[in-house]
Amino acid sequence: MKIAIATDHAGREVKLQVIKYLKENNIAVTDLSQNNTPTDDYPDFAFAVCQEVVKQQCDYGILICTTGIGICIAANKVKGIRCANCHSVNDAKMTRCDNNANVLAFSSQLAFNLIKEIIKTFINTEFSNEKRHIRRVEKIIKYENGEYNEL
What is the DSSP string of the chain? Predict the structure, then answer.
């Protein structure tokens, strides 16, 4: 498994801890925010990680900013990305199981033990493949491609 990761300046220390945690669990990591500055912009890092996922260079992406909100919004502008801002293990489980999310975002302010559990759950939870969830994800993909207009 390979994961692309990035953060803005607010999550640099957490990102380094996450990278260490992932490597300790034999997960390859591509760090796309090696040179953070106090004035960097989270959309740049979101787009970089998401491109790696869309191009299938990485299996999943992880994004970190102060709240996880802004970077998640930016990530979801990239075609083919379903990013969820997770604050709990249940969030991580449900977004993989029901939404087949491929990018995880979270706040740099979460406790690190919780972050580890969120990541572990996200990468180890399979998409349910239930018909209703397949239908919903397909609608998102069709809308993204300009093919869905049943509003």
Answer: -EEEEEE-GGGHHHHHHHHHHHHHTT-EEEES-SS--TT--HHHHHHHHHHHHHTTSSSEEEEEESSSHHHHHHHTTSTT--EEE-SSHHHHHHHHHHH---EEEEETTS-HHHHHHHHHHHHHPPP---HHHHHHHHHHHHHHTT-----
